[in-house]
Amino acid sequence: MQWIEYVRALNMPLRSGISGTTNRLINTGKSLGMTAVEVRLPVLGHLLEVEAHTYHEVMSAAATQGAPYTEGDYKKLAPLSWEGELKALWEKAEKKIRGGGGVGGTFS
Question: Residues 90, 75: contact at Cβ < 8 Å?
């Protein structure tokens, strides 16, 4: 219950809890010689697309495996840069949410 209250205080959306799937997939990637950062991005893309987890749920799980994550910050996602790929994705997501096609939570 404490984790849920903490995430709500960050004003971040919740779907199901910290992602065990992320942990399993990162462990699989590590067994194949990959890092948590290398595995995190495709896992994030998949789990967000199928609406299984929120950004925070996946990133929190990846952080337990050594991938850097600043809670509440959508603008830091190594190896992508804010000036490059992330800004374009951010603007697309904001447009979708403002148009009524997004999920809960806020972008700030």
Answer: yes
Contact 75, 107 (CB under 8 A): no
Give this prediction's pTM: 0.69
**Beta bridge mates, 89:** none
How much is the CA Rg of the chain, to the nearest whole Å?
Answer: 14
Take residue 104 and report the two structure tokens written for it.
């809960």
Tell me if 39 sits within 8 A of 29, measured CB to CB.
yes
pLDDT digits (tens, 9 = 90+) for 22-61: 999 999 999 999 989 888 888 988 998 888 998 889 999 9
Strand partners, 77: 80
